[in-house]
Amino acid sequence: MKKILMVLSFFWGLTFISCRKDTAIDGPSIEEIYSSFKMLSSFKANKDSVDFSGGATVGFSASFNKIVSWKITITGATSKARKVFSGQSKSIDAATTVWNGTTTYFPLFAAENCIAKLTIDGVTDTFQVPVRIKNTRTVNTAIVIADFENGFSPNWVKFVQTGANMDFNIKSDTSKVQGSSYLNMAGTVNWDWLIGLVDFPASAYSTSNTFNLSTNPDAVYFNCLVYGVPGTNMSKVLFQFKEDENADGVINANNEDQYDFNIDVTWTGWKLVSIKYSDITALVNGQPVTPKGNSIHNPNKIGKISMLHLADKALGAAACKIDFICFTSAPLEL
Predict the structure, then answer these.
(1) pLDDT digits (tens, 9 = 90+) for 173-195
(2) Where a domain ends, among 113, 135, 157?
(3) CA 106, CA 175: separation in Å to the nearest integer?
(4) Which residue range(s) make up the domain with 116?
(5) pTM (predicted TM-score)
(6) Residue 215 region, left (φ>0) first, then alpha (ψ -120 to 50), else beta?
């Protein structure tokens, strides 16, 4: 009889344990959810001025009485550039919410006064602190192909169609993004997809017939800034990377590799485009094909880069802007 009672007690205990509810609560309490918002510590920057050129950063902090959705927007007084941080938490930590001088919305920041503004979802008050940029961040590039600050190089080759309202010129106006100049590409060509092009031969940059790039295609990134103009036919910007595989100074399209990077400009305003060289494919009419050379990405053997501005000839005027065409060893940060 004792054995039977012990067995029943054992199973009763298991049943009790398995049926017991877990009283632990995940997330905020009811009191916290319905409490009024309060700042527990004020919104602060850990410095009021920063020299980004030397790698310095500035961090932001604040704390609240409950979990909130927050956003910090840093705006340049002169450039109107913006950097944005956002999150959902009870605190903002200066060790993790760190600004290194990069930009979320172009143009780029200048050496200027900035305002960092904190906004909280559901809270009408905003909180702000000033930060001065002493010097902007240094951009590490392997080679700058074109930033258009000194006009067209006599060693580049430009071709522009004779269409309507053609504008393939370097401009310096309020649309600038990096430095003071950019290349405007616009026009109407109703018989051909090509609006205009620029060839950048390696010889324009050194005495070599190839660009001074790494042999490792995974360590070479191609970057550019592209501006989409609203109200026009979609532009295509096609970059062709032509390799001189036998190093004879002549690029032969029949037996040497060419890799093609097509950019469909489907946005409005400036956008940074970055791609690893090993990810660029050979294209014919926009479709991937097998290259005609050794089919090995050799960035150190690029002898010429061609940039073509294309648009559907049946759809009318097309326009875009381009700037800061460059190679880097990692994805470009601006």
Answers:
(1) 999 999 999 999 999 999 999 99
(2) 135
(3) 10
(4) 31-135
(5) 0.86
(6) alpha
